[in-house]
Write a structure and sequence with these properties.
Helix content: 10-25%
Number of domains: 1
Largest sheet: 5 strands, antiparallel
Structural class: alpha+beta
Distance between the termini: 21 Å
Low-confidence stretches: 1-8
Mean pLDDT: 88
Number of helices: 3
Length: 115
């Protein structure tokens, strides 16, 4: 676990969240935004977005995946569809860019620091 000691994990004043990486898994059409399979961005510490230095990420592809990220950051029951489904499509029908949401780590964050 990142960001807090092990004994904080059960503390009700702490919220456990996953850090995420959104990766371009494949492009089934023509790439118009310049992304390639393997391109990614990360969401860490609840709300920090990072794109690797020297790279970019299409705003429209990012907008398609953003609404799902808060749910993917939280622990989910095994039967929940969000726990099983990790693929998101870009809204451009000609591009058919498919992204994959990956959990990269888990951290405990003081609940008072979250909004």
């Amino acid at each position: 676990m990142n960001g807090a000691s092990e004994h904080d994990a059960g503390d009700p004043a702490m919220t456990e969240l996953y850090d995420l990486r959104v990766v371009v898994d494949r492009i089934e059409g023509r790439s118009v935004c310049g992304l390639q399979p393997g391109d990614c961005f990360e969401v860490t510490e609840s709300n920090r977005v990072r794109v690797p230095e020297g790279r970019h990420f299409c705003l429209y592809a990012m907008a398609a995946v953003l609404p799902l990220l808060p749910a993917k950051q939280r622990p989910l029951p095994d039967g929940d569809w969000m726990a099983q489904d990790s693929e998101v499509a870009c809204p451009d029908p000609d591009e058919r860019l498919i992204m994959r949401i990956e959990r990269t780590g888990r951290r405990a964050i003081p609940t008072r620091d979250l909004t």
